[in-house]
Design a protein that fits this description.
This protein has a domain of about 190 residues: MetI-like fold, CATH 1.10.3720. Helices cover about 75% and strands about 0% of the residues. The model has no long low-confidence stretch (mean pLDDT about 80). The chain has 15 helices and two strands. It has about 325 residues and is mainly α. Helix 5 runs parallel beside helix 14 and helix 11 runs antiparallel to helix 14. Strand 1 and strand 2 form a beta hairpin. It has a two-stranded antiparallel sheet with strand order 1-2. The protein starts with a helix and ends with a helix.
Length: about 325
């Protein structure tokens, strides 16, 4: 497992340098920081002083080296729009996005896995067909449409859930959470459903197809011949052999949701990173855009590493393959 981690970290360094170059290119050539940070009435002397303070007179390779050095320390400069440190602005928004993605992903796994197993073993029943129909709707309908429908039904017509915002949150000093308040939990319901419906549909269809393949394998027939209970056969033996693709897809979906929740966050006015990124694009807040790109890259790398480690837990042969490949080279 240690060898696997070291190989992934080596690949991560290369990926991060490539993304850092892309972020630096955005930072360097998209707009003029001096013009964006100063008011139009600023004198030329003030412009020259700010240019010198930002290091924009240095050679481009030196600027890139400074950018990477500062990024490693979590320093991306000041937000043009808020005039606050970029990491402070992102840290204020990140808890909202992470809580939303965690709730939707956990709900998708808790609902999608059993539904997938049920649809595989009860494929001809009416309930299984209804589940397939719902999954097709979840995959086909865009998230913003689902969000608008939820607002119309539960906020405007039934008036049981808030239409926008995060509700009342509790500041824990290093984290803000809505889990500890009734309004915070209520505000989380509809955005989480809007995000989770696609995941539920995707996971359910994946598990169903994998289960149908696994149930034809000889060891399942042998387990039935031994007289094992159906629950043990389906959930202990068959489902475990379906988990590798599920782990992969869940990891990819989790990273995608963190990076691309902006549509749902805009619909529900959810104060997360996606909403912040849209605002930064509107106001050409380049430091926030560059930091967002780097942070999303780090999140994807971390998720891929966690997925690889879960592979080893689910199937120890993965670790043996990594060791064998290393020895072979």
């Amino acid at each position: 497992m240690l060898l696997l981690i070291l190989k992934r970290l080596g690949n991560a360094v290369i990926v991060l340098l490539a993304v850092a170059l892309l972020a630096f290119t955005i930072f360097k050539f998209l707009g003029d920081p001096v013009q964006l940070m100063l008011n139009p009435q600023a004198t030329q002397e003030e412009r020259d002083m700010l240019t010198e303070r930002l290091g924009l007179n240095d050679p481009v390779p030196l600027q890139f080296a400074k950018f990477v050095f500062n990024a490693v320390q979590g320093e991306f400069g000041m937000s043009y729009r808020n005039q606050l440190p970029v990491m402070q602005v992102i840290a204020e928004r990140f808890p909202a996005t992470l809580e939303l993605v965690l709730v939707s992903t956990i709900a998708a796994l808790l609902i999608g896995l059993p539904l997938g197993v049920f649809a595989a073993i009860k494929g001809g029943t009416v309930l299984a067909r209804i589940a397939h129909l719902v999954s097709m709707i979840g995959v086909s309908v865009p998230a913003f449409v689902i969000g608008i429908v939820l607002i119309l039904v539960f906020s405007i017509e039934l008036k049981v859930l808030p239409a926008f915002g995060r509700g009342e949150v509790v500041d824990l000093g290093y984290w803000t959470t809505g889990f500890l308040t009734a309004s915070g939990r209520a505000a989380l319901v509809m955005p989480a459903i809007s995000l989770a419906l696609f995941q539920i549909s995707f996971i359910m269809r994946l598990v169903t197809s994998e289960m149908l393949e696994v149930l034809r394998i000889d060891f399942i027939r042998f387990a039935r011949a031994r007289g094992l209970k159906a629950r043990a056969i389906y959930f202990r033996h068959a489902l475990r052999n379906c988990l590798m693709p599920v782990v992969t897809i869940t990891g990819m979906l989790f990273g995608d949701l963190i990076a691309f929740t902006l549509v749902t966050e805009i619909v529900f006015q959810w104060p997360g990173m996606g909403f912040l990124f849209v605002q930064s694009v509107q106001y050409v807040d380049i430091p926030v855009m560059a930091a967002y790109l780097m942070i999303v890259c780090c999140i994807f790398i971390l998720i891929n590493l966690i997925v690889d480690l879960i592979y080893v837990v689910v199937d120890p042969r993965v670790d043996q393959l990594v060791r064998g490949g290393s020895n072979g080279r």
